Amino acid sequence: MLLGMSGPLATDDVSPEPEAPVEPPCVEITDSRDADVGGMLVRRALPRRARRTVGAWCFVDHMASAPAEGPGIGPHPHIGLHTVTWLLSGELVHRDSLGSEQPIRPGQLNVMTAGNGIAHAEETAVRGALHHGVQLWVAQPEATRWGAPDFAHHAELPRVELATGTASVLVGALDGAVSPARADTPLVGAEVDLRGPGASTLPLDPAFEHAVVVLDGAVALDGRDLTPGHLGYLGLGRDELTVSATAATRLLLIGGTPFEAVPLMWWNYVARSWDEVRQAHEDWQAESDRFGVVPSTLARIPSLPPVARGR
Ligand code: MN
Q1: What is the pLDDT of residue 66?
Q2: Cβ within 8 Å of residue 223, ≥6 positions away
Q3: What is the pLDDT of residues 68-82, one digit of tens each?
Q4: The pairing of beta strand 150-154 with beta strand 72-78
Q5: When you count CB atoms within 10 A of the terminal residue's CB, does the N or C end of the chain come out lower?
Q6: List of the chain residues with pLDDT < 50
Q7: 175 with 203: CB under 8 angstroms?
Q8: What is the Å distance from ligand 1's center to 114 Cα?
Q9: Distance 83 CA to ligand 1 centre (A)
Q10: What is the pLDDT of residue 224?
Q11: What is the spatial distance between Cα 224 and Cα 7, in angstroms, rounded to a whole number?
Q12: CB burial class (10 A; 0-12, 13-18, 19+) of residue 273?
């Protein structure tokens, strides 16, 4: 199976209060957690117990490179988030309850907005192909999280030339290059492709907190080595970041203004309260119009019942 398209999130990741954004800038390295998503190993860099969000980014699944033999992930619901899907290899077909049917290939971006509710399936286009990529979730703010669902495919994204490579701007802006993708809060997301040995400097917004996930290769950040399987959290207040590599390396840079709330994440729901989670669970199980119908041949995935956690 593919990417972390359908959680579920473990109770490990939804427990006590997380740490506040760090200022001045730091390099705080945490281990990703191996997660099994429909039989496929992914490295989940966010959320972690102590670090729930980076800006509004609240979920980072790096699909461990392996041939995808399964058919994909069947219809499942989301609320309160954008899913941001980016592939380095392989091909998927997105189908959703708005009627969207969209293949996605490397170099293209899918951004799905759940708002009050959407359902989608992500099907493997080529069985046995190496599927390498990320699926990211962005928490929607109070101002839009009860709004209408939406889906957008971006076949072309702006690129920034760096001293030793190229950055593709997925969301937000980098060095004046602005992505067409929707963002409901100030955000940046970029894939940085470093060709080989040397250092490149990325201009950053000091009002943002940032983090880096290495997808392939290794990078040094302020003298600290970062490799796949970890999140390098960089804090607030940086106006630039120098990334040094000794070989070809690809990394993901994410950032944004610290999010307005600590989102409550359960299964595929990004909410604020257990009442909201329970309602979403009941609505999906009842096949309510809230989530609609996905025209997929894959089986509908039942919702994970909320556990009793107080509140
Ligand atoms: Mn999904």
Answers
A1: 66
A2: none
A3: 677 888 999 999 999
A4: unpaired
A5: C
A6: 1-6, 310-311
A7: yes
A8: 10
A9: 7
A10: 94
A11: 30
A12: exposed
Structure tokens at 200: 């490149």
Which residue(s) pair with 210 in the sheet? 235, 255
Q: How far is the CA of 223 from the centre of ligand 1 (A)?
A: 36
* Distance (Å) of CA 183 to CA 3, 74, 254, 301, 308: 22, 26, 13, 28, 33
pLDDT of residue 310: 47
The string of DSSP letters for 197-262 reads SEEEEEE--TTSEEEEEEEES-EEETTEEE-TTEEEEEEE--SEEEEEESS-EEEEEEEESPPSS-
- ∠101-75-297 over CA atoms, to 5°? 70
- How far away, in angstroms, is 284 Cα from ligand 1 center? 14
The confidence score (pLDDT) of residue 193 equals 98
Distance 85 CA to ligand 1 centre (A): 10
pTM beyond 0.85, yes or no: yes
d(CA 127, ligand 1 centre) in Å: 19
Place of tokens 């329970």: 278
Q: Tell me, in angstroms, the distance from the centre of ligand 1 to residue 76's CA.
A: 6
C-alpha distances in Å from residue 15, one per residue of 6, 124, 126, 265, 310? 19, 33, 38, 10, 11
Protein residues with C-beta less than 5 angstroms from the ion ligand 1: 5
Q: Which two tokens stand for residue 278?
A: 């329970």
The predicted structure's pLDDT at residue 3: 38
Q: Are 46 and 12 in contact (CB under 8 A)?
A: no
In the reported structure, the alpha carbon of residue 40 is separated from the centroid of ligand 1 by a whole-number distance in angstroms of 15
